[in-house]
Amino acid sequence: MAKTSALINKETLLHICNSKQVSSQYLVTKGRFNPERLTRWMDISDSLLPTILQAKKLASCLHIPFAGLYMNPLDIPLKKIPSFRNMRTLWGTSNSDDSALNIAIIDLLSERDFLLTTSLELGDTFPTFSAPFLSVGLYLPLEELEEAVNETRACRTLEPETVISALQAVGERLDRGELDPLILRYAGPGGRREVAHIRPLLRREALEYKLAVELGIPLYSFQERPFGRTQTVPLGTLFHVTAGNVDGLPAFSAVEGLLTGNINLVKLPSGDQGLSLAVFQLLTEQEPRLAPFLYAFQIPSRDTAALRRLADLADGAVVWGGDGAVTALRQLAPPGCKLMEWGHRLSFAYLSRWEGEEDALSALAEHLIQTGGLLCSSCQVIFLDTDALGEGDAFCRSFVPLLERAADRFRAALGEKGEGSLYAWETRLEHAADRLPRTLFPGRGCSLTLREDRELELSPLHGNVLVKCLPQKALLPVLRRQKGRLQTAGLLCPAQDRPALTQLLARAGVTRIAPPGSMSRTLSGEGHDGEFPLRRYVRTVDIQEPSPDRPI
Questions:
Q1: Rounded to two decimals, what is the model's pTM?
Q2: CA dist 307 to 269, 275, 393, Å?
Q3: What is the mean predicted confidence (pLDDT) over 121-135?
């Protein structure tokens, strides 16, 4: 039986393909059409037509209604693909087929127009992002970015007071509840609690204290020297590559760059859900003078060509993340670009006394549940100052109820619960099959695993924690095996032992010592990984003045 031909308008088919810049090869691949037949379908002088099923598949590939293929070309209100530079491929190459991308862009433009029209009809305003928020390849070519950055460096100066005033104003809006819808959108129901921890850092006195402690001398100030003067100035342009394990980390990194007067080029992590952009929007709306010093980019890590162009503009590259991220940026950064690593770190709790310390242990349990093991400052292993596994067993039995209570109070997302349950079952199976030196203490939404070894390592995530016995005499050699990766130690001990234990931990390489429940609580003026970040983001300029004693 002969199949029914679709009496489509071939001129319309050609018009759609040309407007959307869709190649024949894309249609052949997407629709699995015979190349010769497709060529004939698109030839106006050829009488061959597709079947109805084939025409429906063509319409589906082109993202148009099937009936549109029967219309006259001029009756179809199609957008033409806008001109843009493809930043996903190496410069000078043209071997990629952008048909799928072009169709997606057309679809987005059509949806945008629909939303704008609907918004106007309803008398509402439509939210937009201002110029500082750039998507490479769509809004601003990198060549134009370089010109903008150079113009800012030549003609503008960003004073710390400008940044402090903007942050203070945003903080006051937080206090008045004006940003509650934004918090709920990006941080969920527990967002207010998280903001309460951050809010003290936005106060003027805290920011001024941070600048005084970390810089020591005011930005742009002069100091007299025997040879002349020394001035402290911004490093220049910072390229931030941030991790996605902490919500808002790109914004935090950029704010430190702004406080030191730098131009900031921020690569957003793939896991960022819009919180950092929202913060940037708030800051630039509050203080438009910040806009020329702040640029954010949504670039995939695989687009090394675009990332290298950004790195080439930078005087310093700031990287947050694991060894892979640090290595990748090291390869991208040009010679002379200062690399500032905030890399992978390990933190732990060290308990030399735990009986009768329910309040401190409850705080530790809440820390474990709230951070989920995702932060560099998250406790990965609970070390007990003992050699006796029996004491470790007794500790786990007493600590599990506290961990359960924290898990009930700070309920995890469904995905986190799934990961936790999966880990608990895997541990049980491993223990049953291999008789490994471990004991599992399961709880509701959490678990403890008592291990016989003494190594500091990553715990499973989401309330599943390792417990190990580590007497003081073995503390230093164990920790030194992780030298360069140590960060926070949550110390719980008798008051008379604290000075000696603090010194021992410091000698082992720990850069931060805090109560167990405060391991991830950030305080103004604290260092980070043993350094003051703001000092890394400035440089000194030596200025020799001509005098009779020195030749000109």
A1: 0.59
A2: 13, 22, 50
A3: 49
**CA 296 from centre of chain:** 12
Q: Tell me: the pLDDT tens digits for 316-363?
A: 998 887 777 778 888 888 888 888 877 677 899 999 989 888 999 999
Residue type, 262: N
Residue 351 is given by DSSP the state: E
130-144 pLDDT, tens digit each = 334 454 433 456 677
Which one, of 428, 434, 429, lies nearest residue 449 by Cα? 428
CA 30 to chain centre: 34
Residue 83 and residue 35 in contact, taking contact as beta carbons nearer than 8 Å: no
Q: What ranges in 372-527 are assigned the alpha helix state H?
A: 389-409, 414-434, 472-480, 498-508
| Range list of H helices, 272-335 | 275-286, 304-312, 323-332
Q: Cα–Cα distance between 488 and 485 in angstroms, integer?
A: 10
**Please, what is the Cα angle at 487 between 321 and 409, to 5 degrees?**
85
**Encoding tokens for residue 495?**
């008051």
For 308-337, b where at least 16 C-beta lie within 10 A, e where not — what string? ebbbebbbbbbbbbeeebbebbeebbeeeb
Contact by Cβ (8 Å): 261, 233:
yes
Q: In the chain, what are the domains?
A: 10-85+98-110 (1.10.260), 142-342 (3.40.605.10), 346-522 (3.40.309.10)
3-state secondary structure at position 276: helix
- Here the tokens at position 226 are 């025997």
DSSP H or E segment with residue 61: helix 52-62
Please say if the pLDDT value at position 23 is more than 80. yes
The C-alpha angle with vertex 320 and arms to 317 and 326, in degrees rounded to 5, equals 70
